[in-house]
Amino acid sequence: MAIVATALLAACVSNDATATGEVSDPSAAAGAGTLPAGEPDVNGDGKVVVGVLSPGDINDNGYYESFVVKAEAFARSKGWTVIKRGSVPIADALNAARALCQQKVDLVAIGATELKDAIPASAESVCAKTAWYVPSSANIPQTPEIMLSTDDPNQSMLVAGYAAGLLMQERGVTRAGFVTGPEADFTVVASTAFKAGMRELIPDATLVTTYAGDFNDSGKAREATQAQMSQGVGVLYPYLGGATDAATALANSKKLITLTPGTDRCASTGPTFDVSVLFDPGDYFEVALTQFAAGQLRMGVTRTWQLGVDPYPTVKLCHGTAEQNAKLAAFSADIGAKKIDPAAEVKKLGA
After folding, report:
1. Is 2 inside any structural domain?
2. Which of 11, 105, 268, 294 is a plausible cystine mate for 49, CB 3.0–4.6 Å?
């Protein structure tokens, strides 16, 4: 998960580019990277097929599902076909990618960075006539055969913590909980940045982090949430995949402040959320698909999404007051204007 992993390294995208699919990065506009011949019908068989591989449950009502839902909706509008496979074991990533190429897909899309071991297939003969879309929240090397899409998790998680801090101030809460899957680089970064965000407003805020070992195991998520509730947390961030709703429903039973791991669920009534943290991989992918359809999706380039500049990533309060919303917007804008350096804030406040 990315989640959480998230895509998430050199071209900034404007709001206009998001709407039109046009590349706003000067280097890309000047011809950086390469355009696969015949795009979107890269293999020239008269049809367009998109293949999607996800490490998680593609029916999780959240991060993993959003990627597939956006792909299917876009494909329907164009008369394309989507071949999808969820819950791909990391050890099987490379073979799964080869299998997609054997089915003559024109675009291979990796749903999260856990499946980075699939990338070597992009340089193999079996995948010679394919384009590749890869989200990058880690140090995935740029190669001529793939397009990388990235953002900075420090940005979204710092602002998520700041948003939680606004609600914590209102309730007089100083202790929060963070429940996630395996202890990996990106989950550690997310937890640390979230804590730093809270401490922007509440210097003595504490964070209890539990690595449950699995993003989708509802039983483990509930057990971890219950343990944190017994320690008096007033906030729960379920930085999870398929287990998000199970953990959040339990947190709702004690009226804890809750946040989403990637998607906008402010309208959800069961469970309910107080903050939507938006780094939805489906939104990023939809822009790439728009470019792909127009024959403009270049391989060998990286696209960076900037909080406070682009529409995503972003954070919103589901029921914030005017004052709270204004403070959150100003904080995000300062990051976009580089008045606030998220990495420096995390280093200073996240210890």
Report:
1. no
2. 105
